[in-house]
UniProtKB/TrEMBL annotation:
Source organism of the structure: Filifactor villosus
Protein name: V-type ATP synthase beta chain
Highest taxon in the source lineage: Bacteria
InterPro entries from the UniProt entry: ATP-synt_VA_C (IPR055190), ATPase_a/bsu_AS (IPR020003), ATPase_F1/V1/A1_a/bsu_N (IPR004100), ATPase_F1/V1/A1_a/bsu_nucl-bd (IPR000194), P-loop_NTPase (IPR027417), V-ATPase_su_B/beta (IPR022879)
Protein's gene: atpB
Similarity field: Belongs to the ATPase alpha/beta chains family.
UniProtKB keywords: ATP synthesis, Hydrogen ion transport, Ion transport, Transport
Function: Produces ATP from ADP in the presence of a proton gradient across the membrane. The V-type beta chain is a regulatory subunit.
Every ATP synthase A/B type C-terminal domain range: 355-455
Residue ranges of domain ATPase F1/V1/A1 complex alpha/beta subunit N-terminal in the record: 11-75
Segments traversing the membrane: none
Domain ATPase F1/V1/A1 complex alpha/beta subunit nucleotide-binding: residue ranges: 132-350
Amino acid sequence: MSDREYLKLNRVKGDLIILEDVSDVSYGEVLNITLQDGGRRSGKVVAIEGDKAVAQVFQGTQGISTSNAAVNFTGKPLEIPLSRDILGRAFNGVGESIDRIGPIYSQKRYNVNGRPMNPVARTYPRDYLETGISAIDCLITLIRGQKLPIFSGNGLSHNELAAQIVRQAGVKGEEGDFAIVFGAMGIKHDDADFFRQSFERSGVVEHVVMYINLADDPAVERITTPRCALTAAEYLAYEEGMQVLVILTDLTSYAEALRELSSSREEVPGRKGYPGYLYSDLATLYERAGMILGKKGSVTLLPILTMPNDDITHPIPDLTGYITEGQIVLSRDLSGQGIYPPINILPSLSRLMKDGIGEGYTRGDHEEVSSQLFSSYSRVQEVRSLAQIIGEDDLSEADRKFMEFGRQFEEKFLSQHTDEKRTIEDTLNIAWEVLSILPKEELERISPATIEKYYRK
């Protein structure tokens, strides 16, 4: 910690303070601010230009002027104390307790920016992680150590889906070693209450760590929320040997806060006003998921982002798609039909599922069933387009079978209750129930032996 105390600020702008004539200050360093009335705040250095330092204040700059604050630099980056006691606890975006139980006492403090994972030390993810949701487990299988974003839209049921995954997700045979880190950025108070009550009612709260940044909290705190959550996940995975699922919602709020900060720093904007480094910034979050050779634990990441105007080409989902290993896309049309979860399987994919399903992982017929469901549902869209032109009565017998398959697939397979947990066996059995609507000769992606074993006559 520096002995020097700076008694005068050069400028206060938004959530930023600017100091001149500073020395021995580094990027990302934490500083303490003491106000004349005795109030204390903290911040971190976000830019250095010669002898000038720009810092963002986590609690906001309201009440701070250029002459009523004293600043001390700590000489350290933002660090949070971690131990196994964080399970079942709730914290704000900078790792401070908000559940009235008190702070975490630990001799170990961890830099929230983490350390880059050596690519050579990564191990290839193979074991699947069961969410209890048919559309995900069968068609967009989540693999332990994977980063798989959920692309949603404003007003869709992504919060309900996130809460359901938290309640139901688990690793077969290792339930006691499973934990969930839930990071929320810019959410409303009623959404925060919904998540808390949902976890408490289902009894999973002891396995969940929450980092919550509310909509009326300072935007700058939003930048550190996912980093605190991922730091906690890395600790639980690599030091406590746990299988950790990280759910971050909403990455769009995070990117908006990043854009606001970038604008305050008068940086040259990129696409749609977002900073030019949005891609690399998102990568510093997403790339913290994975598995390390020789370590028992894993970090699996499910970031949720709402696409502005449902535009999948918007910079946030667009750049996210480049970094992550697939996507789960929610559909406004399916939601309008009353289907929950409204997962549109056709633009959704999991690039790692091929190596984590089948005999020894899920069930021997999983890969063939998944491929056939994608193929048949794609055909359903073509038949529905044709039916709009010529009418359903004039369709061929085979096309009418596909129309019926499409209805049953959406009503029985895609749709499930928010408290309904399906095992992978349940999911695959329902898949065969709807596939058996189609004639055997239409199941081109499934081998005759598998059809003989599972086809419902």
